[in-house]
Design a protein that fits this description.
- The protein is an alpha+beta fold.
- Helix content is 24%, strand content 43%.
- The chain has helices spanning 36-52, 192-204, 206-213, 215-235, and strands at 2-7, 66-75, 78-88, 94-101, 106-128, 131-158, 164-176, 179-184.
- Strands 1, 2, 3, 4, 5, 6, 7 and 8 form an eight-stranded antiparallel beta sheet that branches.
- Strand 4 (94-101) and strand 5 (106-128) form a beta hairpin.
- The longest helix is centred in the last third of the chain and has 21 residues, at 215-235.
- It starts with a strand and ends in an 11-residue tail after the last helix.
- The chain binds 2-acetamido-2-deoxy-beta-D-glucopyranose (NAG) (4 copies).
C-alpha cells in the first residue's frame, strides 16, 4: 500500500498559453526519419544545458538547482515529508537514450547523473526498516552514479486555438544508484546519541532505506524531465514539434 502526494508549482494549468514555435536551441527531427530516436537523442543533448537554466517564455523554471516546495509519502509504516528543498547537479547528467513510441504515445528518456545533491527540510515519523524513528529539521542527501529511466504516457488535446497539443500525463521512474548518502539532522528531538546512531544505521543500510522512503526523491527527480516536456508540449502545437510538415 502506498500513498503518494506531490505538490508542484507547474504552471501548465494557470499560465495563459499562446502557440509558440520550438525554442531556437531545440533542433526538430522528422517523424519520417527512420532514425528518429538517434536524432532526438543528439538534439536533446544539445538543448538540455540551455533548458536546465530555465526559459520563462516557455514556462520552464530553473531546473538546476530545482526548487521543490513539498513532496510526501506514507508507506509501510512511515510518513515522510520533504519541504523547501533543492536538487542540484542535473547539469552534469548525460542523456543516454531518448525514444518516442508514436503508436502508443510513450516518451522514454534515460540519463546518468554523476552526482545529485538534495538539501532542505524534512519531517518524518514511523518505522524505518523496523526501527522507530521520528524527526524534524534539515536533511541532505547525495546520489552518485545514478542511472534513471523516465517514461510518460501522452495523449492529444485540442485547445481553444483549434490546434492539437501533446499532453504528457503521469510519469514513472526507474532508478539504479551506485551510492547514496542520506543525513537527517535533529532526529529524536535533537537527542544526539540516538540521532547519530540512526544516521550511522542509515549510512550502512542505505539500499534498504531507499527502498522504503526513496519514492519522494524519485518523484522529485522525475519532475525535472517532466516539467520540460509538459511546458514545451503545452506551448508548442504537436505538428510544430517536428521538422516535417503534414
Ligand atoms: C518554506 O519556504 C517558504 C517561503 O520561503 C516559507 O514561507 C515556509 O515557512 C518554508 N517552510 C519550511 C517548512 O521551512
Ligand atoms: C559538475 O561537474 C564539474 C566538473 O566535473 C564539477 O566541478 C562540478 O562540481 C559538478 N557540479 C555539480 C553541481 O555536481
Ligand atoms: C549534511 O549535513 C550534515 C549535518 O549538518 C553535515 O555535517 C554534512 O556536511 C552535510 N553534507 C553536505 C553534503 O552538505
Ligand atoms: C486520451 O484522450 C481521449 C480523448 O479525449 C480519451 O478518451 C482517453 O481516455 C485518453 N487517454 C488517456 C490515457 O488518458
Amino acid at each position: 500500500m502506498s500513498k503518494l502526494s506531490i505538490f508542484f508549482a507547474v504552471c501548465a494549468v494557470v499560465c495563459q498559453s499562446e502557440a509558440l514555435k520550438l525554442p531556437d536551441y531545440i533542433t526538430p527531427c522528422s517523424r519520417k526519419d527512420p532514425n528518429f530516436n538517434e536524432c532526438a537523442l543528439k538534439h536533446g543533448r544539445e538543448a538540455i544545458p540551455r533548458l536546465l537554466k530555465g526559459d520563462p517564455k516557455y514556462g520552464v523554471p530553473v531546473l538546476d538547482p530545482m526548487y521543490v516546495p513539498e513532496v510526501s509519502v506514507e508507506e509501510s509504516g512511515i510518513k515522510i515529508t520533504a519541504r523547501n528543498f533543492t536538487i542540484e547537479g542535473a547539469r552534469n547528467a548525460t542523456l543516454q537514450d531518448f525514444r518516442v513510441d508514436f503508436d502508443k504515445l510513450i516518451v522514454s528518456i534515460q540519463f546518468m547523473a554523476p552526482q545529485l545533491d538534495f538539501r532542505g527540510k524534512y519531517e518524518l515519523s514511523g518505522k524505518l526498516v523496523s526501527l522507530p524513528i521520528i524527526g524534524k529539521g534539515d536533511f541532505n542527501s547525495t546520489f552518485r552514479g545514478l542511472i534513471a529511466k523516465y517514461e510518460t504516457q501522452c495523449n492529444f488535446t485540442k485547445k481553444a486555438d483549434g490546434k492539437t497539443y501533446l499532453m504528457p500525463l503521469d510519469y514513472e521512474m526507474e532508478f539504479e544508484p551506485e551510492f547514496v548518502r542520506i543525513y537527517f539532522g535533529n532526529l529524536f528531538n535533537g537527542n544526539k546519541l540516538l540521532g547519530d546512531a540512526m544516521n550511522s544505521f542509515i549510512a550502512e543500510n542505505w539500499r534498504l532505506v531507499l527502498d522504503q522512503i526513496g519514492k519522494p526523491a524519485y518523484r522529485a527527480l522525475g519532475m525535472i524531465v517532466h516539467q520540460i516536456l509538459v511546458q514545451v508540449a503545452n506551448k508548442v502545437p504537436y505538428d510544430e514539434l517536428f521538422s516535417d510538415t503534414d
